[in-house]
Design goal:
The protein is mostly helical. It has one domain (3-92). Helix content is 59%, strand content 8%. The chain is built from four helices and two strands, in the order H-H-H-E-E-H. The protein has a two-stranded antiparallel ribbon. A hairpin with a 2-residue loop joins strand 1 and strand 2. Helix 1 runs antiparallel to helix 2. The radius of gyration is 14 Å and the shape is globular. The two termini are 16 Å apart. The relative contact order is 0.15.
Length: 96
Amino acid sequence: MEFKQFQKIINRIEKHHKQSEMLYSIFGGCDFSDDIEDSLVDVLSQLVEDYSDWITWWIYETDFGRTDNKITEDGVEIAIETVTDLWELVQANRPA
C-alpha cells in the first residue's frame, strides 16, 4: 500500500469516528457501528503489516495524534502527531 492510500483510509476512519461521537453525544448510549470502524482498522493494520498495533494506539489512545502521542524508541522520545508520522512508524516496524 502506498502512503496516499493509507492517508485516505485514515482520514475516512477519522471522519467516521467523529460522526459516531457526535451521534453518541446526541443519542446517548447507542452504538453507531463501532464494529465496522474496528474492522476497518483491523484490515488496514493487516494490509500494512502493523503487528504492533500502532494504528489502533494512534487512533484510540492518542485521538488521532492529538494527545499523549509520544513514544520512546532507542531512548529517544518521538511524537507521533500526523498520519505521516504514523506511516513512518509502521513502516519502520514492519517485519523484514
